[in-house]
Amino acid sequence: MQSHFNKYFVRLLEYKGKELLSKYGVKIPRGAVISRVEDVSVLSTFKFPLYAKAQVPFAGRAKMGLVRRVDTLKDAENAARDYLGRVVQDYPIRKVLFEEGVSVAKELYVSITLDRENRGYLMLASAEGGVDIEEIARRSPEKIIRLYIDDYEGLRDYMVRSVARKLGLEGTAAQDFVTVVKAMYRVFTEYDAELVEINPLALTTDGQLVAIDVKVMIDDNALYRHPDISVEDSDYTMEELEARKYGLHYVELTGYVGIMANGAGLTMATMDLVKEFGHEPADFLDIGGGASKDSVREGLKILLHDDRVKAVLINIFGGITRCDEVARGVVEALSEVKTNKPIFIRLKGTNEEEGRKILAEVGIKVYETAEEAMEALSKALRSMQG
Amino acid sequence: MQSHFNKYFVRLLEYKGKELLSKYGVKIPRGAVISRVEDVSVLSTFKFPLYAKAQVPFAGRAKMGLVRRVDTLKDAENAARDYLGRVVQDYPIRKVLFEEGVSVAKELYVSITLDRENRGYLMLASAEGGVDIEEIARRSPEKIIRLYIDDYEGLRDYMVRSVARKLGLEGTAAQDFVTVVKAMYRVFTEYDAELVEINPLALTTDGQLVAIDVKVMIDDNALYRHPDISVEDSDYTMEELEARKYGLHYVELTGYVGIMANGAGLTMATMDLVKEFGHEPADFLDIGGGASKDSVREGLKILLHDDRVKAVLINIFGGITRCDEVARGVVEALSEVKTNKPIFIRLKGTNEEEGRKILAEVGIKVYETAEEAMEALSKALRSMQG
Amino acid sequence: MAILVNENTRVLVQGITGREGSRHTQYMLQYGTKILAGVTPGKGGQSVHGVPVFDTVEEALRKFPEINTSIIFVPAQFAADSVYEAIDAGIKLIVIITEHIPIHDTLRFVNYAKRRGVTIIGPNCPGVVSPLKSKVGILPNHIYTKSGPVGIVSRSGTLTYEISYHLTQAGIGQSTVVGVGGDPIVGTDMVEVIKMFEEDPETKYIVVIGEIGGTMEERVAQYIGSGKVTKPVVAYIAGRTAPPGKRMGHAGAIVSMGMGSYESKVRAFQEVNVPVARTPTEVVKLIKKLMP
Amino acid sequence: MAILVNENTRVLVQGITGREGSRHTQYMLQYGTKILAGVTPGKGGQSVHGVPVFDTVEEALRKFPEINTSIIFVPAQFAADSVYEAIDAGIKLIVIITEHIPIHDTLRFVNYAKRRGVTIIGPNCPGVVSPLKSKVGILPNHIYTKSGPVGIVSRSGTLTYEISYHLTQAGIGQSTVVGVGGDPIVGTDMVEVIKMFEEDPETKYIVVIGEIGGTMEERVAQYIGSGKVTKPVVAYIAGRTAPPGKRMGHAGAIVSMGMGSYESKVRAFQEVNVPVARTPTEVVKLIKKLMP
C-alpha cells in the first residue's frame, strides 16, 4: 500500500509524533527539541551522552549521518550547527531532537493503520521490532499479530490485553502496553491519522515501555481541524506548500517535459504518454477538480519558471473543471511570464468551445487528443535539438 | 425525575459550567470569578454596571438576594465582602461571579439530559425560555421541542439545524445554535453529565446567542476521570465531603433519631419505619455495599457527635455487606466516643452469627427485625422524656 | 421452571480473585451454583475455591464452552471493559454486581448488549436467585431455602433480602428473585422482568419492590394497566417519608411531569388495582390474602 | 436495463445553491435527469434552474416522496453531515461528488450506510451515467450520447471521460459508467460494481480503469479469478511510469505485501486473462477485438 500522487498524507516530524503520543500517556525518552543553535543550553540539565536526531521526514536517517551521539554540551552545539539549516532531499532541517539514551532489553513493533479493504482500522504488533520488521513479516508472517478494529465498536482494553499476552508481556509491562496502544488509538482517531507507528517500542531493562522512534501520518484533508499541527512540522517542501495554496498537487520529477492535467489518473496517464514517446516528465502537476483560472495560472507559472522544463503539455478533460477557466488561466500566465517554451494544449469536455475560442484569440492551437498534442511536442523538441 | 438518596449527581457552580461550555465555543457574558475580596481589582477594565452573582449550587438565588447589580468598583468590593464566606443552606460561598450585562431580545431554553426510559439522551428546547419554563411546559407542552439522541449514532448537525428552524432562528443565529448545542453535547458526553442546561439562552439585540445561566450536573461516579473538576466547584457540603471519604452516603434531615442502614432502599424503608412509629429521622446514612468496619465506625461517629440525635437505629441486612464488619465498626466507634445515647441494632444476612457474637461480647443486644428494634427504641425515648 | 437462572446455568466469575469476587464465589458454590471458571487478567493459572482462573474470557470459554452466564465483580473503572469482553465472547446473560459504574458507561454497554441479544442484569444489583436451583449474585444463601410461587423484582438489594426473608419465614417460597439494580439506567428494567414472570409457569404471584425517584414503577403500573399481566401483583415502595430530593433542573421536571414521587407511584399502582404495602412485612400479608 | 441509475431515477441535489451544485444541476437537467428538489440549509424557498430548494432533506422528501437518489456537492467540511441527513431520511443511493472529505469521516459514514442498506458512490467521484437514461454526476454530457454494451468502472474521473469519449467516437455505446472515486476508502468499490454489471443484461463487456496505489485492482482480478464474472473484461492502469510513491511506513509494506504497484496490478489481471491496455485509446481496440 503506497501513496502515489493520488492522495497526500502529511508525515509529521518524529518529535511532533512523540509529543502527541506523550500527551496521551506514552513514555518517550527524556529529551528536548531545538531550532536555534544557542538553545542547546537547555540541555545542560540532561544526562549525557545524548543522541542528536535531525528532524527530517523520511527513513534511512541514521545511514545519512543525521543521527549522532553527543557526549558534551559542546558536541551538542556542533551537531545543532551542523544540522540546522541544511537541506536534505529538498527538505530544510529546522529542528534537532536531543534525547537521553534508553537501556533496551527488547525491541517491539506496534502500529495502527487504516484497513482500506475492510473499511476499518488495523493494529499490527510484533515481539520482534526494529528496522528489520518488514523482513520478519516476509519470512515469518506468523510473528506479526493482527487485530482488526471496527470504527463503530472501537478498541476495547481486553483486546489489547490479549495482544499483550501474545507478545509475551506480563505484569506492569502488559498494563503499560494497553496504555500505549490506547494512546496510539486516540491519536489515530482524534488526529485523523493514516498511520501511527512506534518502532521500536523498547522494553527497557527496568521493565518500562518507551517509544524510541515514531511515525505519524495525518490526512491532509483534515488538517484544518487540527490547529495544533503546523505544516512546518510535516514533510511539505517549500514548493509543495506554495502549490498547495492554490489547490494544486505538484510533485517534482527528474525530466524536462512540463506536465499539467486535471485529475490524478489523467495526469499519470499523461506522464505515461510522455514516456511512451521516449521523453521524460519534469513533474506531476494535477490542478484537481473545478480549478479556477488563478490555480491554472499559478500552476503554469511554476512550470514556466522551471529551467529544466523545455516544453509544456497540458491535458484537460473537463467534468467539474471548466475548459474556459483553464484557457483563461493559461492566457493570464502567458501575459505575466515572458517565455519561449512551446506549450501544447489538449482541451476536452465542459465548456470546451469557449475554451478553444479564448485560446484561439491569443493564437494557441488546441489539439483533439493527448496523443496529437504529444506528437506535436515531440516534433518541437526534435527541432529544438536540431 | 428527581434524584433522592439513591444516586448522587454533582451540581457544578454556574461559573464552572460556563467555563466548560465556553471552552467548546458557547458565548458567555464577559466576566470574572473572584474568591478573595481584594481580587475585585481585576474588574477595573470591565464595563459597569456589572452583576454580582454569588456562586451557590441551588435555585432561587435571586430571591435570596444573592444576585445584585453593582455600579462601581467600590460596589463590587462591597458585594464580594458581603457574599464571600457566608453560609447559605449549609453551603459556604467561596466564589462570586461578576458579569457584564447583556442586551436580551429573546430568552430561549435548551438542555440535554439523560433519557433513562429510552436509555439514550434527550434534548429539550423552547423559544420561550426563562424562569417560567416549567409552567410553559405544563400549559403548552407543544412549545417544548424534544429531540431523542441515540448514544451510538450521536448528534448530527442537521438534526440541530432542524430544531433551530422550529425555534424560529435564522441565518447566523441558526448556525450559532448548532455551535451551542454541539458544545453542550460535548460537555454532556465528555464530562459524564446528567444534565447540561442553558436557561435562559439569550438571543441578544445584535443577534448573538449568549448563555446567561447554566446548570451542569456531573455523575459523581465518573469524577475520577475529570481531574479538571474540583469538588470545591460543586454542591458538596463539608459534612458530605467528609462522609464521602469513607464511601458513606449521608444526608442531614431535621429529626432526632439517628439512622444507619445499608443500601438506599433499606435506609429509606428504615426512615419510613421511624415515621411509622411517630418519630423523626435525623439523617439518611447509607453505608453502601460491602462497607468496611472503618466506614461503619466513622458513620456511627457522625451520629454520636450530632447533638440533635437522641437515639440510634442501625438496620443491616447483609449481602455483600458482612455483619461481622458492621459489628466491629460499631464496637470501635463506641470505644472511641463516650456516649450515653442508646443504640438499637438489627443484624441479618451474611456472617450474621459472627456479628452477633462480636456485639454480645460488649453487651449489645441484636434484634431480629427492624420493627422490634424500633419498638425498643420508641420505648427508650419515652422513658428518656418521662 | 423459573426465569433467567436455573439448573442449566453455568457460570463464569469475572473479577474472581478480588475480595468480593472470591468471597461470593465461595458462597455461590456453597449454594450449589455451577461455577466453571473465573477470569482476572494476569492471574491465569491460579484457582479460587477450586475454580480455575483464566486471563481472558475467550480462554475460559474455549475450555468451558458450556458457560452461558457471567457475573461481574470487576471494579467500576474496569467493569465496562469486562462487560464488552463477555458480550463479544458470546455470553448471553451477564449479571453485574459492581456499583459506582459511570452511568454513561452503563448506557453504552447496555445498548451494545441489546443490539447483540444479550441480557444484562444490573449494574449495582444483588443479582438473581432461583431458590434451590441456582444463585448468580450476592443474596444471602440462608434466606433462599424454599422455591415457590412468588416472583420478586426489585430495585433495592437489602430490601429484597428483607422481604424474601419474611416470605420464606412465612413458608412462602419464591420462583426467582431479581434485583434489577439501583442505578438510573439498568440493563433489564422491571417491566422486562415482569414479562418474563408472566411467561413463567412456576410464578403465580409477583412482588414489585420499588423506591422513589425515576419512573420505572409508573411504567410497571402502566404495563399492568395494558392488561398483559394476568398474575396478581403486590408492590412496596420505599421512601414514603423522604423529603423532596435534589432537583434535576427544569429538564427533569419537564420530562418527569410529576412522576417519581412516592405519591405518584402509589397512585399509579392503585389505579391498576395493585395493592401497595406500607412496610416490608406487610408484603407477606398481602400475598397471603391472595393465596387460596 | 443499466445499473444504479435509469429512467426511474428521481434526484435530490444537496448543496444545490453552491457554484458547482447549481452549475451541474443545469447540466444534469439538460442531459434529461429528473431532478425534483435541492437542499441548502437557510436557502429554503429559493429555486435553482427551476428546481425548488428546501432547508432540509426531510422537507424535500415530504414534498417529493418519489426521490430515490441524492447527489452531494456540499463542501468537504459539511459533507459528512449531509450524507447522514440523506441516509437518515431514507434515500437509498447517494452519489458524493465532493472531494477532500477527511478519510475518517468517509470511513464512518460508509460503514453507517452499509448497516442501513444504503449504496454510496464516491466520495471524490464523477458520479454515474447510464447514457440516454439518466446522469447523476458531473461527467460531460456531450460524451454520453450512446447507450450500448460496455459497462465502465473507474477510479479516475478524467480518465473515464477520456476512454468513454474514444468508445463513443468509435460508435461503441455504454450501459452505465461508474466512477467509484479516487479516495483510499470509497462507498462502493470496483468489485461491487462488477457484480452489478454481471447481473445487468444490457452490459456485455466490462472496462476497468484503475491506477497505481491501493489494492482495489488486485481484488478485482482476484474476484474475476474466482469464476464469478462471465463477461469479458478489459483493463487500463494509469501510472506505469510513476516513480515509487511515499512509503506508508512499515505497516503499509506489511499489509500490502508488494501489492499496489503497476506491475502487481498488471500481473494480477494477466493471471486471470484480462488484457491490459497501455494507453487509454488502446482500450477501444481491445473492446473491438472482443466484439463479434
Description of the structure:
The complex is a heterotetramer, with two copies of chain A (386 residues) and two copies of chain C (292 residues). By secondary structure, chain A is an alpha+beta fold. Chain A folds into three domains: 30-101, Dna Ligase, domain 1 (2-Layer Sandwich); 104-225, D-amino Acid Aminotransferase, Chain A, domain 1; 238-384, Succinyl-CoA synthetase domains (Rossmann fold). Chain A has eleven helices and 20 strands. Chain A has helices spanning 14-23, 73-83, 133-139, 157-166, 171-190, 238-245, 264-276, 293-305, 323-336, 352-361, 370-385, and strands at 2-3, 9-11, 31-34, 50-54, 67-70, 87-88, 91-92, 96-100, 104-115, 120-126, 145-149, 193-204, 209-211, 214-219, 249-252, 257-261, 283-286, 311-318, 343-349, 366-367. In chain A, the strands form five sheets. In chain A, strands 2, 9, 10, 11, 12, 13 and 14 form a seven-stranded antiparallel beta sheet that branches. In chain A, strands 3-8-4-5 form a four-stranded antiparallel beta sheet, covered by helices on one side. A four-stranded parallel beta sheet of chain A has the order 16-18-19-20, sandwiched between helices. In chain A, helix 1 (14-23) packs across helix 5 (171-190) and helix 4 (157-166) crosses helix 5 (171-190). In chain A, 51% of the residues are buried. Chain C has 292 residues and is an alpha/beta fold. Chain C folds into two domains: 11-121, Rossmann fold; 127-290, Rossmann fold (3-Layer(aba) Sandwich), CATH 3.40.50. Chain C is 37% helix and 22% strand. Chain C has helices at residues 19-31, 57-63, 76-88, 103-115, 157-169, 190-199, 216-225, 249-256, 262-271, 280-290; strands at 11-14, 35-39, 47-48, 51-54, 69-72, 93-96, 119-121, 127-130, 134-137, 147-154, 174-179, 205-211, 233-238, 246-247, 276-277. In chain C, the strands form two sheets. In chain C, strands 3-4-2-1-5-6-7 form a seven-stranded mixed beta sheet. Chain C has a seven-stranded mixed beta sheet with strand order 9-8-11-10-12-13-15, with helices on both faces. In chain C, strand 5 (69-72), helix 3 (76-88) and strand 6 form a beta-alpha-beta unit. The longest helix of chain C is centred in the N-terminal third of the chain and has 13 residues, at 19-31. Chain C is globular and about 55 Å long. Chains A and D meet through strand 1, strand 9, strand 10, helix 3 and strand 12 of A and helix 1, helix 4, helix 5, strand 14 and helix 8 of D. Strand 1 (2-3) of chain B pairs antiparallel with strand 14 of chain C.
